[in-house]
Each structure stands twice: as C-alpha cells, then as structure tokens.
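Worked example 4.2. Below are the chains of a multi-component assembly; read each line carefully before continuing.
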Amino acid sequence: MKPRIGRQARVQSEMAVRLMNTFRSFLLEGECAGSRFILTSPTRLQRGSGGNRLGKSAGSSLEFLDHREYQPGDDIRRINWQALARSDRLSVKLFREEVTPHLDLLIDTSRSMALPDSEKARGFLGLIALLTQAARNADFTCVPWQLGASSQRVRNGHHPPSAWEELTLDYSGDAVTGMVRQPPALRPMGMRLLVSDLLVAGDPAPILQFLAHQAALVVVVQVLAEKDLHPELQGNLRLHDCESGHELEVFLDQSSLVAYRAKLSRHLESWQIACRRLGACMVTLVAEQLTTAWEPSELVRQQLLAMTGVC
Amino acid sequence: MPVFSLPLAFTGFIGLFVAMAIYLFRNRSRKVTVSTLFLWVDQCKPAEGGLFLQGPQAPWLLLLELLILALLVMAAAGPRAILGSGRIPLVVILDASFSMSAGEPDSPRQQAATALLQELAREPRYQTRLILAGARPEFLGPVAKTRQEAEVLLRGWTCRAATADIDQALALANNTGGSPPRILILTDHSPADPGSVEQRIQWWSFGSPRPNMAVIAASRSEYLEQQQVFFEIANFTGKSSSVKTTVTCADLPAQELAIDISAGGTARRTVEVPQTDGQVTIILPPDDLPFDDRVVLFPAQTAKIKVALSLDATSLLHHQIQQALTATDMVEFVAETRQPSADSGADLPDLLITSQKMASAPASVQQWVLECREETDAVACLGPFVLDRNHPLTETLTLDGAIWGVAASGTSIGLPVILIGDLPVLSDLALTRGGHRLVLRVNPGRSNVAQLPDWPILFWNLCRWRRSFLPGPEVINLRLAMPARIRLPMASSGARVRDPEGVVREYQAINGDLVFQPDKPGPYHVSAGHASWSLALNALAAQESDLRLAASGRWGDWHESPQFQKESTDLRWAFLLPALLLSSLHMYLVSYRREGARV
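Applying the procedure described above to all two chains together yields the following structure tokens:
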C-alpha cells in the first residue's frame, strides 16, 4: 500500500525539487566558469611518497634539483661518482620531491547564503563550483564539506559540482561556528577554503584557529549580496532574519544606514585582522558583481586563482 | 449642559476615523528579509505603529491630533448653554381628545406623559404651564416649578373630549403673559403642515395607526306605537369586516346583529323596540378604543304642555287654534284653572289661551297666557309683515300671501313680534317672574292666515317654546362636548347628578337652570326634589374614532429660534481655546523629534 502523501507535503516536495534544480544550475554555471581558472598551490604542501606534481623541496623524483656535500646518513645511491672522480670530494645529487595538493572546501549552508531577492545564492554556489573546478584543473584533490547542523561531505563530492547532491542552503543556525563544535575531518597540510558570508556574531579567532591548525593555507572567501553591503531601506520596517526567523521592528533613516555600514565595516575588519594574525587570506566578493562575468578578480589578484587561457 | 445648535457638524467626527486610518496606514511596517539581525539590533525602534504590541506605549501625537479634531468638531456644532439659574417658561398643550386613550395602557397619552416628565427631568429649569386642549382649551392647574409638581398635575389629564382645538390652545398659550414661552404640543397626530411649525413650538406626536370600529351616529325616536333606534357604525379598520352588534333594551332579550361593512365605509341600521322608558344600549365588540364602542339612548322627552283653551267654542278662531294645537301633538287640553293663590302651579295649565283681556299677571309664572283679540273693526291687510327673527315664535315663518285682519286702531302690550307696517299683530310681554304674556290680534273672518302653513307653524313654535320652559333636560341624548341643560322645577335650587361610574355630585341652579358638562360616556341620572331625569352621553365623533391617521414623530426645534439665541450663551470659545493650546503643544512635540525623523 503506497503511503498517502498530503497535498501540502507534495507541494513542498515539488518546491524542494525546483530549488535543487535551481541550485544545480548555479553549480553548473560556476563549473563552466571555473574551466578558465586554476587554483594556485600554496608554499607548504602535503608531503607524500608520490605525487603528480613536483614540489619545490628536494625529494625522490627523477628531476635533478641540485648538488650537496655528502653527509653521513645520506643515501649512497645518490652519491655523484663522476664528481668524486674528478674532485676527490663526496657529493650527492638532489632531486625534486613529488607532492599531492589537497583542497578542503568548507561550504556555509545557512539560509543567509540564499538571501531572497538577491544574487547571493547564485554567486555563492557558482563560486564554489568555480573554485572546485579550478582546483581540479590544478590537479588538486578536493573534498567539499557542507557546514550546517554537522559538518558532512557533500554527497557525490568527488564528482563535478554539477553532480553534487543534497546540497541545500537551509540551515537555520550559525554554520561557521558550528564547524568548530563538530569539526570536519580535514586533511593535514592541505589547503582549506571557507566560503561564507561571515555574518555571524562573535570572535572569528576560534574559527580561524581551528582552520589554521595543520593547514598549509587557509583562505576565507566572503560572499555578500549588494543588499548586505548597501541596504536601501528607509522608514518603518519589520526586519526578518532569514536564518533564525526572528523579526525586529525598526525605523530606519540615513543615520541608521550609516551606523549599519560602520558596524559591518568593523565586523569585516575584525575578520581581516584575525586572518592576518593567523596567516590566512581573506577575500570579499559581491555576488551581483561576481555573477556578471564570473571573473573573481580579487582572487586572481591575491594569486589564489590563475587564468588558464581556456575560454 | 450645552446644547448644539448645528448638530449636523458632528459629521466632522468622520475626520477622526480618517486621521486614525492615515496614522495606521502611514505607520504600518514593511517586511524586509535580511541575512542577519545582529547588525541591526541597536537601531532605533519606531515610536508608534507596527505589528507587535510592545507594552503600553501611547501614541501621544495621534491622541493629541484626535483630541484637537474632536474639539474643533464640537466647536463647529455651535454649542450654546443657558447659564445662570434663570427659569425657562414652558407651556405644554395636552391633547384631551378621546383618541389619545387608544391602546391602553400604552396609549398616546401615557407615552406623552412619560416623554414630558423625561424632558422636565432633563432640564430642571422649566417653569411649566399645562393647557388641556379639548373643544375649549383650559389651564390644568397652576404653574409647575418642578417635575414632581408637573407629575401631580398630569393626573388630571383626562382624554374624553370629542375634539382637540390645538389652534385655540396655541392662542391661549401665546397669551399667557411675560416673555414668549416655549410651547410643547403633545398629541397623537402630525401637524397639518410640518414645515410651518413655528420655531418656538415643538410638536410631539405619539399616535400609531390602529383599526377601530365605532358608532358615529345614534338616535331614538317614537314612531307610531313603537320606538325606533337608529345607529350608524363606521369601519376604520382598513379592511372589510363583519361586526357583531348587540342591542339591549331594558329587561328585554338582547338582539344580535351581524353587520358587514366595507373598509372605510359605514352601515346604518334601524331597530324597533317596544315603548319603554328604559335605556337602549348598542354595544360593539371591544377594541383598542372602547370609548366609542357603546352607545346609550334614552327616550326623547315626550312631556306635553297643558293648554287651556278659553275661547268661545263656537267661534271660528277657537276652531282654528284648536286645530293647529292638535296638529303639534305637543299639547294636552285641560280645563282652565285660575287660582290666584296657587303657588305650586301643579294644576295650572301651562298655556292659557283666552280671549279676555288679562287685567293682571297670570296667577303663576308657570302659566303663560295667549290673549286672542278678535277685533270687529278689523280690516284685511296684505302687509308688509315685519317679523322679529330673533324671537322663537317667528322661526321658519314667512307669511307669504297672508291676509291678516286687524284693526288699525288697536293696541298691544309688550314687544312686537309680528307687525303689519307699524301695527303689532303679535306681541310678547316677558314677565319679571319668568312667564310670558302674548297678545294675538287677528280677525279670522277677514284673514286667510289660518289657511296658510304659517298658522300651524306659529303654534308649533309656541308649543315648543313653552315646553322648553317645562322642568326637564333640553336634550336627552347628548354628544361629547354638548353641555347638559336642565330646567329645574320652581322649588328646586339645585340637583344631584350621578354619573356612569356612580359618582354623585351636587350642582346649583342658576335662574332655574342646571348646566353641567358631562365627560364620561354613559347614562346620567339627575334628581331634584321629587323630579328626576335620565340623560345619556355618547362619543359619536367620527373624526376622533378614525385612528388610521394617527402618527408618531417630533417636529420643530426650539434651538433654532431667535428666542433661544437670546436665552443662551455661545460656548464655542470653550472648545476653540483648548484646541488652540493643544495645537501649540502638538507643534512643539513635532519639532522636538530627532533630525530626519518622520513628521
């Protein structure tokens, strides 16, 4: 006997399917845009016994790097016998190491990332897909994590972003802070990239400290809507928090907006200071500007992305 | 308590609702979704309006604006008040017609009395004068200075008149003296022209259309050996009806008649009853107005005057006079009795017709004398006849074609009643003790007046006139508003009257006549010494019985009259001044708000 499905549940299911399809289209859009970019690797990479990329340090690959005077304990197979015959000095050959770069992509799935009447969701999901594709272009291994009630890997995350499943932006709490309480299993010495709007109250230091622990590089990409930066609101308003559902009645005038922008600026500044202290990199992008041409120029300027020349 | 002379201005209170609507719509909050609230939490909150209740935060500016609007509206309504302790003269005209008693206990009279007492309670400064408006208006008691006094006086407001002459009552009210009073009319019908009600007059009507059946005419007469009772019933119910009428007569069984009457129509019936002195009663089924559902009829007066004909029985004049008197059916011929010392007069004829000159006055005031002078030297005269039309004997006389034989040199006594030229042929001497001595100069051999209709008319007038001086009521069956006049016997100075409710009153006679005004329908019994009579009073007023035109409503407004303007003081300043002060406060509060704030 088939279970009865109420009309309301059916309608909600249909709406969820439509939303998923919309989100998937955003991911596809970003994936296509990401083909033009590669993610640049950090200076400290994960060391391993093999890899598909040559590191800057000495390793065990076949590519010659440099000579060095023999020291007790060196591998005698590395001794440069030709140099010994010529100079009667013991020296060894150094070869470049092989490394495997890894990206942990931390996705804020709170509702504020899908702010209604804005390009925020499109820009956010598109950017995620762009960064993932850029990482794949740079031979990174990428693990997308969705931060919500708990930190979980995105289903089908090893596939291209357009194939990801169950990625919804409907968490009603603070996803970024929750990451510290239920931390994901991040790979050591990898690159950690947090994408969020960072509109959470509180000290950013604990979050960044968690991210920076055993990380090769921490990058924080803030995605904001134009409405978040420059709200055009005046008069008697009932502000509705799309994450918590709380409402606040305010009367806004020019002075109120000036005060808001000042407070936002201080908030962003606190994150920037915290990032600098921990050696993390922070970039702020505006979703409406991003979705115009899919050219995250700020990321390129910060040398986090590089153009591939592929159109 | 102020009175507002322009109550239409209160429609301005709609502005209060407009102001509140503007306030609500202007201050309602718009919902906006934001990413987070923590950047907004320290913003200013609205002072008024909004979706959520936040405790007792009064919108002071709105309250001020509403209060100012209310004060301006009340000032525009023209408030006036009578200051000080001055009395306000009020004359109340009370409709005393019997239609006011329809539908007891919730009759128009009761409703009017209640409304009047409420008005007096509302304004204690009234000095009230009550006027009963019946056929003739009359004051009801002294001036009432308090509501309680008026309430006591109102108990004397009886509604038993056949009509209410409001115009006469108004004239009386206007002549009460002093400053023109306010006039309040309490009745059960609307004014003839509502637009013409004067400014000093208020017309309050408390009637309501009701169906009614009424007896509007009735009489009782003798016909041959029977008595006939005639009555007419009117149908004021608005639809055709069959009315069961009961006719009772003394000890005889009642007769039941079913009479069909169309809507608004009347039906007449004549019923024969045996000869009886008892009352005949006509009864209709009870309805809202029982005043006109019952009629009592007594037999008409049939007393005959005793006439002594002291003429030469063989003379032509004797024959002619006897013939004329017999034709009247009002005489009883008796033998002549002349007792100079008789003081009771019970055996004396009422009218002595003689040919002898009366050297002295009749023996008694109860005996009239008609002296007939058959002059031998009479000549036949064709006229001109001059008649005293004010005299009862000349009623309907014409003497057209009459030839009257009279001596040119004869004399007469008393005032001439009929003259031929300057010759009195009939004269009347009124005696000081009430009797009359008449002189008739006619020679039947040289006259043809006995062959004319005027001859029996003359004697019919004489008999009726003489009978009117006999003891007894002038009219037996009275209508409302008719006074009862009864000639009492000589020895009586007064009489006792018992009304239909059994109440007995004593009345004094004036010049031998007893006059009183009965007001309760039904039988009355009058007794004076050994004599007694029965009278009946009946409504028989079709206009009052027709309740279809009764109406309720109020017309007129004292406050529109110039008199009220003089009596009262303009109180607009009492509302404008606070409005001005509050407006100043409002301006101050508005300018005190922060920069950029909504004004």
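Take a moment to check your reading of the output against the notes. The CA atoms of residues 30 and 202 of chain A lie 31 Å apart. The radius of gyration of chain A is 24 Å.
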